[in-house]
Amino acid sequence: MMQDDAGLWRNLTRPLGSPRSGATGPPRSPLWFTFLSASLPLLGVYLFSLQRDLGTIDSGELAAVCHTLGIAHPSGYPLYTLLGRLAALIPWGELLTRLHILSALLSAAAAGFTALALRETLDLLFKQARYQKISDQWLARLSVLGAWVWGLSPSVWEQAVVNEVYGLHFVFLSLSVYLGLILLRPSIPAAQRSVLLHYPEADSRHLAFLGYLLGLGFSHHLSLAFVLPSLGLAAGYYLYRRRVRPTARFDSIRWKILLTLIIFFMFGFSVDLYLPLRAAQEPLLNWGDPSSWARWVRHVSGWQYRVWLAPGSDTVITNVLGRIPGIWNDLGWVLPVAAVAGLILSWRRRAMAALFWTILLAVGLIWAASYDIKDIQSYYAASDLAVVALGLSGLAILLSRIRRRKVILTFVMLPVAPLIIFGAFLRWDRCAADGPPLPGLYARGLLEGLPEKTLLFSRQWDTCVSAMLYLQFVEELRPDVAIVDTELLRRSWYYPQLDRMYPGLLDPVRPQRDEFLTDLASFEAGRPYDAVRIETRYQALQKALHQAWVQRRPTAVTPEVDARIFETSLPVPYGMVILFDPPEELLSGRGPLPLVEPFLAFGPRTDDLMARLMRHLISNMAVSRAQFLEEREAPGASVLLEEAGWLRRRSEMSGRN
Description:
This is DUF2723 domain-containing protein. Keywords: Membrane, Transmembrane, Transmembrane helix. InterPro entries: GT117_domain-containing (IPR052724), TMEM260-like (IPR021280). The chain crosses the membrane at residues 31-50, 62-80, 100-118, 165-184, 221-240, 252-275, 331-347, 354-373, 379-400, 407-428. The protein folds into two domains: 29-431, no CATH class; 438-656, no CATH class. 60% of the residues lie in helices and 3% in strands. α3 (59-68) packs parallel to α21, α6 packs parallel to α18 and α15 (334-349) crosses α17. It has a five-stranded mixed sheet with strand order 2-1-3-5-4. It is mainly α and 657 residues long. The radius of gyration is 28 Å and the shape is globular.
């Protein structure tokens, strides 16, 4: 297959949808129709089940970063930040609502590209003349159904209804898979072009666009690496077919194609320059301060997350085996069962396509199982997509072998849509977010209940610290309160951020701060360090900060922080915090505990991990406050104990469900 430099340039500049010269035959059914058929119904589901307020974990921080054009937690997410900033400029509705809708739009678009990838897979299996037994229209319909199954899986749906970075990641995942499959298109002899549907071969434009897309994708989320082995297979197969001489191992044309791929990758990855450029301007939120080369590398590589990797192969194997029932629950039983047939039968028709999806399944499953984190579900989106593709392939091949297949296809398709709807109904409470807005109620209740000018120490990033960044710096709720994340105090970049958020807060502890940061610098630079001394100075810094302010402003901790390091005389349960040495007027009554009624309700996301944790925390603080009131022989203890009992019984119902 000869191609000179001029031909390479013509391919790069020709519109991506235009056919090669000489391609004849009737056109395929339009790709845009397949895309919209998959994405629009899912967009409706996502919008109907959208989060109504703050979400948990990173939701508040990401919204605040978009509002202030800051730097988010690793790997920084510059493209999401810029898109979120554009959404923030739209003069309609609440900022959170706009960002939730952005996630829904991106996830729906990802489902559309997934339908195109599934259609490309079926095209690879059925476009040869001897296998052309199912019409293009039916292949498109099957692809749309497969995209619906994937888009309604918890891996995707849970992230599509709340402001998170995964919607954009799913776009890069699905679109890169689609382009990788295009690279597997076979060469079509001229004699067959009149027989086959319009099916242009892949060329250097697809590879260049894939490089650009991967650059953008890696600047956004490193888990796009799940798909790299499969894309490497597709690119290698494409380059092998483009050799100038049959005996040549590598020739100049392929070197130029690879160079083009690298250039386009770097062009896409250049969006990451936002991080050092913006960090140098010292924005309010500047996680990691990636203004230097070393800090930038640590930030974009997710250096701090290495501690979450599973400790050994036994853990990985256990996680993989534990995921198998999860695939069944998340995707239904039809496609996972058919995937076994697809894994076998598709090898005989198009081995490269089968290998592409098999590699993605194995790498995605094993890599995701290597992480020991709570919010792991979204990491299984790649392996779930591979299961859907293999299942759809197996189902289509089996149906193609049946006589009167059009009748069979009709009878198979008629109940499939209701089954998908029924499966979505069963997963509604798990995936939808239109129930009681518990994360927002919890964070707002905690923040609003604090005494004036409180200094709060907390490690509850997932339930309140992240959310309170949004509440304080976007909604401007309780700007008098200073919130210190005790885990982030272990990072040197956090101290300048505290100076920007709460000017003067750290002034009384400059000596202790400087001592700690001197030792911490050795650890962060990879030099020999004294772990015991670092921990000792870290504890001393917290104690000094507490002692510097306890006589001038209320000081408190959330219950997971060890209050003993502050050596205070009277820690008092008050609302959702432990308040040190409070005035007499705060020692009686129920205190500012959140109302328990919303946390007793049933509905979407009222039984997930974060909801159970919030119920547990409220229940424990109610019991602690009741015990404190009983010790003082003050009224109100029985009511608090009753509320705690309600919450615990509700949690027991969650466990049974």
